[in-house]
Amino acid sequence: MMEPEITQKETRCPRLGSIIPFSYCMKCGDGRFPCGKVIDCWWEIFDIKGYLEQHLSAEDFQELVNRKPKDKVSSILELIEQAKKK
Ligand code: SF4
């Protein structure tokens, strides 16, 4: 379970261009993973790596850390597809 004091933290999303809560970042990946940029976006705000290590399985954590960043167009298309599904 995610702690409210962390899930309610907010930052400006470089993909969406608006302020969003951390809880969104933890759900907006492919449904199982957090967003692939979650470490880049949150490391200055709190210990995101420590948080992910606690909340993901060791296997999922390694997969997230080792993911290659997607190019901007792929990211935008993915976000559009996710928005259509909701
Ligand atoms: S982790 Fe993803 S959804 Fe969250 S602010 Fe960064 S780019 Fe946006």
Question: Would you mind describing this structure in some detail?
Answer:
The chain has 86 residues and is mainly alpha-helical. It has one domain. Helices cover 51% and strands 7% of the residues. It contains six helices and two strands. A two-stranded antiparallel ribbon has the order 1-2. β1 and β2 form a beta hairpin. The longest helix is centred in the last third of the chain and has 14 residues. 8% of the residues are buried. The mean pLDDT is 86. The structure holds iron/sulfur cluster (SF4). Iron/sulfur cluster binds next to α2 and α3.
Helix/strand-derived category reads mainly alpha
Provide the helix percentage. 40-55%
Characterize the biggest β-sheet. Answer: 2 strands, antiparallel
The count of domains is: 1
Q: Order of strands side by side in the largest beta sheet?
A: 1-2
Number of helices: 6
> How much of the polypeptide forms β-strand, as a percent range?
5-15%
Unreliable parts: none
Which radius of gyration do the C-alpha atoms yield?
A: 13 Å
In whole angstroms, the N-to-C terminal distance is 23 Å
Mean pLDDT: 86
List the helices and strands and how they pair.
Blueprint: H1 4-7, E1 10-12, E2 19-21, H2 22-25, H3 38-42, H4 48-55, H5 58-66, H6 72-85
Antiparallel strand pairs: 1-2
The chain binds iron/sulfur cluster.
Residues 11, 13-16, 20, 24-25, 28, 35, 37-38, 41 line the site of iron/sulfur cluster (SF4).
